[in-house]
Specification:
The chain has a three-stranded antiparallel β-sheet with strand order 1-2-3, covered by helices on one side. A hairpin with a 2-residue loop joins strand 1 and strand 2. With about 90 residues, the chain is α+β, with helices and mostly antiparallel strands. The chain has one domain. Helices cover about 60% and strands about 15% of the residues. The N terminus is likely disordered.
Length: about 90
């Protein structure tokens, strides 16, 4: 089972199938709660300009990655900035 875009899915015969709400386990509910809590915290700590960027994200991991890239840049950008400072 995998949390995928705020929905749990199960894999049967190599095919991803969305679980119905009655199929959710206590662990699924716990993961949903933790994701919602993390998303709420991330929404609360962002500036308005960042908030507009992350509103399209579907889970806390996507929000974190988006904020990370926005604030620090991807590795190539960071390396080029370091290279500029070194030379």
């Amino acid at each position: 089972m995998v949390i995928h875009r705020n929905r749990t899915i199960k894999i049967e015969n190599g095919v991803e199938i969305r679980k119905t709400s009655c199929e959710y386990t206590d662990n699924d509910k716990k993961l949903f709660f933790m994701n919602a809590k993390a998303m709420n915290i991330l929404y609360c700590i962002t500036r308005k300009s960042e908030f507009n960027i992350i509103t399209s994200c579907k889970n806390a991991r996507d929000i974190w990655h988006t904020l990370e890239v926005t604030n620090e840049g991807i590795n190539q950008v960071k390396e080029s900035k370091i290279d500029m400072l070194v030379y």
